[in-house]
Amino acid sequence: MTDLGYVGLGVMGSAITRRLLDAGHSVTVWNRTREKAEPLLAAGAQWADSPREVAERSEIVFTMVTNTEAVKAVTEGPDRILAGLGDGKVYVDMSTASPANTRALAEAVDAVGAQMLDAPVSGTAITVEQGKASVMVGGDGDAFERVKPVLEAIAPKVFHVGENGAAVTMKIAINLSLAVQMLAFSEGLLLAEKSGIPREDAVEVMLASVIASPMVAYRGPLVLGHPDEAWFDCHMMQKDMNLALELGRELEVPLPTTAVTNELLTAANAMGIGDKDFAVLFDVLASMAGVKTEVLA
Amino acid sequence: MTDLGYVGLGVMGSAITRRLLDAGHSVTVWNRTREKAEPLLAAGAQWADSPREVAERSEIVFTMVTNTEAVKAVTEGPDRILAGLGDGKVYVDMSTASPANTRALAEAVDAVGAQMLDAPVSGTAITVEQGKASVMVGGDGDAFERVKPVLEAIAPKVFHVGENGAAVTMKIAINLSLAVQMLAFSEGLLLAEKSGIPREDAVEVMLASVIASPMVAYRGPLVLGHPDEAWFDCHMMQKDMNLALELGRELEVPLPTTAVTNELLTAANAMGIGDKDFAVLFDVLASMAGVKTEVLA
Amino acid sequence: MTDLGYVGLGVMGSAITRRLLDAGHSVTVWNRTREKAEPLLAAGAQWADSPREVAERSEIVFTMVTNTEAVKAVTEGPDRILAGLGDGKVYVDMSTASPANTRALAEAVDAVGAQMLDAPVSGTAITVEQGKASVMVGGDGDAFERVKPVLEAIAPKVFHVGENGAAVTMKIAINLSLAVQMLAFSEGLLLAEKSGIPREDAVEVMLASVIASPMVAYRGPLVLGHPDEAWFDCHMMQKDMNLALELGRELEVPLPTTAVTNELLTAANAMGIGDKDFAVLFDVLASMAGVKTEVLA
Amino acid sequence: MTDLGYVGLGVMGSAITRRLLDAGHSVTVWNRTREKAEPLLAAGAQWADSPREVAERSEIVFTMVTNTEAVKAVTEGPDRILAGLGDGKVYVDMSTASPANTRALAEAVDAVGAQMLDAPVSGTAITVEQGKASVMVGGDGDAFERVKPVLEAIAPKVFHVGENGAAVTMKIAINLSLAVQMLAFSEGLLLAEKSGIPREDAVEVMLASVIASPMVAYRGPLVLGHPDEAWFDCHMMQKDMNLALELGRELEVPLPTTAVTNELLTAANAMGIGDKDFAVLFDVLASMAGVKTEVLA
To answer: Considering the entire predicted model, what is its pTM?
Structure first.
């Protein structure tokens, strides 16, 4: 089995690391707060004292962090990943970050003799656990072939979509639909509710219909009650929408539903519910429709 | 088995009638053009010379026609359905029409001693054939229980959602997401394509992701080539969007993504491709993004 | 001077009738509630007991009512205007109503030997009083030439824009900008306010800028306090937006900013402030931005 | 009279410098290409070889450049403005740039003993020439009082709107309405045109109506033919829309009409007409409405 490294142990990074351990790989990990690593260390992972050390001790090193700035924070600088990479290693960034930064980083990785892939996941921590997620990969074909068996331990569907940056672009292109689908679902749901159909009945019927994407199936029920911790909050979702809108301007693609939906995420922030799962787009629209909800109570 | 009647043998009505015949029911049919009935007559259905005659010869009579005006055209008047209904019969309208008209019609049906249900289908002719569609039902609970076994021959999932008009409202509430999801999908797809990922590759990856509702799974591939005959053209889709927007104003529910998407359906009509499946929302957006497509060539 | 008739004495109809009286014309009036006519009767107008009688006693008869249904209510039926028209008379409808209805009505007027013009006013009761409004006219050129001198007593700028229905179409085309300009103004104003600039200061600066249309100049100050009676409430404004959106679908013109703004008018209605001037679009947006306003307190 | 300096002699900067010269001030100028300065040198301005030299020779130094990056390019570095400022001088930036950068720059100016004001102009080169523009000013009250008489030579209306950054914020808040008003105007115009009213007639009527802001009055006629050089092209307009949208996210103000209109500016870029005045929003919408225009021919 391969010596792997994993930097960034949020909910998603932890779920992925666990699958890698379960598949028999040796995994060295680092996280900004060691506490989050404990369950994985108990399951057999090894701790390193810096991202650099993770890179030094691994053949393939993964990162999964919040945004472009966080990617820079774990890669650039004396104790960071770039300083630990070298000939024959592969660096795989699974974060959703700016494609332009991904391409620049790939050049920096290349300059130290290693190779980089961008490999964001489509799915949630739950779909990763269930083995139902998919991974998109951007970068050199040889590096892809080397890493592919490892990625298949994470998710059954692995797609090589193009050069460096192509996979994060693909991820951004998919993620804009998350928010738009949630808002369109909410529009329909409020029509049903204000016509007299109980909210829970309407949700049940809608989840049995042709609009029930896995996203709608996961998040639809949140309009009946939110978990204690958000899966993917409005700030995170808006970060991805902003990446999409910037890319749209750069590549000259108008994004009308993305643009409109993003303004309602702004409203969610303004209403003080930006730290809830972006399913609160329902509550924002409900407030515009004069309907009181628990989230905004 | 029950004596059934079916009025309106378009693609959808025909698929449903066939399932009723396959389930062993006796079905009397009528359609504006008899030609479309021929395959069903060959399969055992019986022809009637008017909607009235269908109603007279059936215990339960179904209609599935294009819009509110068409519902009126087959129900009101000397040779129409209302004239053939009577004590103990049930009239089931499966069309997507105005909820207000449905409620008015239910009263007229009640006045002649029969009962009415609105029972639109969520799905396409293909999902009906495959036994994967669902049916929403509005109206009296007793009438629902009587008709339920017959509806289950059409689709495995049958929901009683409320009083008369509730089911068409539910259908409209679902259908707005069809168009919005298609446009959001197109926004992402064009981002991917203009970033250099081949369209067919991007479609494949997107169909393996969490945004792939059955709707996206059916229609996504249409961006690579359209069938000879549209499944549900822009005019039909816009009719449903208009019903949603009217209902939104009546019930005071703002519908931002529905409203924006509807304007792009108008653009499709203006560009001369309104008789294509509404998946041409992709082509409208592509034209705004300076991308040439076959549909608009 | 000419024998004129005026039916519909709301704020606008009263202001116009007063200008006609001031110009020395004889004016016979009728209104659904006689009370509103009193100040005009005191100023020299004569009362008639029905729209028909107004038409019988006038060479040129004007109407200015709320919507398409109200136009029908004063023109069709035994005691209505059509019954009082005849050879050589001209009927001038100044309402903002459906262009299709206007064209149908023009044919009915023609059938009784009279001629019809549609002649909506661009402006408010205040601009009419100040002699700064403009009138658009649709219909036959000869009828236009006959009525023109009378219209010039109402407003200095009189435009013949085309056949019957052209002027109401033009009015609708103008009115959609009222609501959109108000919403865009509100977006900027809230940016300024949340950045720390006092609302009244920001309004003053904006009213001195290139975006200050007469509409913005009238309505901008309403964000600082509303009059007791709305000039043009959200329901009225939405009626015009709906006419625009219907026309857009019929003529195949996408109307993206109109469509989005209309959904915020729906929100105003849902929030219970639909009977206020449509300048409350500011308050709707403020509520989405987490800013409390007096109107929604 | 005062020793003034002016850096950035585009169409607007040149018009302003000319007014300053006409008012009897001594003006030292610098521009990236000397050629553009020639007419002003002929009119009495003096040339300096660097922004630093301009600052050294002036009591009050003005800049008017394209965007935030260009502001940095003329202020930061050895031969730039900051290096030439000192005790008692005032630096006035008339550019529309990021408020955050303006605040940071004001601190740097303060650190060298000088004072900074942000002072963007509302108007065009033409309104400046006609003495009809207005100036908004952000920054310290004393500095404002010192510069006010000079600003009044540029424009009759001078507003002190708040601290550093307040004036550019105000400018951005105003500018979003430019694009939105143009698009709403285009929506109405296309309705009129497709209903059969000639475009030039419809423009004339609309310019006589309550929606005719100075902006609409200037730009409306462009739909009948564009000047050789754009006044303010789509790229410039989109830069300001992006500043507004960023500010909206930062200050938590949803900007629905801004967001939608910005996507149509993207479409203009994609259609290859981004270097035309942003009045081509009309042509973008016309293309969506199936109407051919000269600009897109």
So the answer is: 0.95
